[in-house]
Amino acid sequence: MDIFMEYLKCFVVGGLICLIGQILLDRTQLTNGKIMVLFLVAGAVLQAIGVYGPIVEFAGAGATVPISGFGYALAKGAIEEVKSSGIMGAFSGGLAATASGITAAIVFGYLAALLANPKSKS
């Protein structure tokens, strides 16, 4: 029963994040790219003020998988690196914290491009 509650929390929080994105798509003139940037910056700002961390602890992957989770990881890495290395850590901390995710996205995107057989729409 415990694992069911973990899945439920993850689903609800991730679903709420997606619901916010869908409402922004339907009710505003914002493009997909602008909404993604908005979520990324919101995740970073919410982490900087200490709000996103507790959400991640509560929901796990429901809060870290959406693009706002990437902003959270960037901000968290930068904050931790600034604490240990000084102000220069603000530039390297976020990249070091997200390097594995960025690498995985590039590798799997490349593999998908190699395996896909695109067809023309016309």
Automatic annotation (TrEMBL):
The keyword Transmembrane helix applies. It comes from the Bacteria. Coiled coil: none annotated. InterPro entries: Spore_V_AE, SpoVA. The chain crosses the membrane at residues 6-25, 37-55, 95-116. This is Stage V sporulation protein AE. It comes from Cellulosilyticum lentocellum (strain ATCC 49066 / DSM 5427 / NCIMB 11756 / RHM5) (Clostridium lentocellum). NCBIfam families: spore_V_AE (TIGR02839). Keywords: Membrane, Transmembrane, Transmembrane helix.
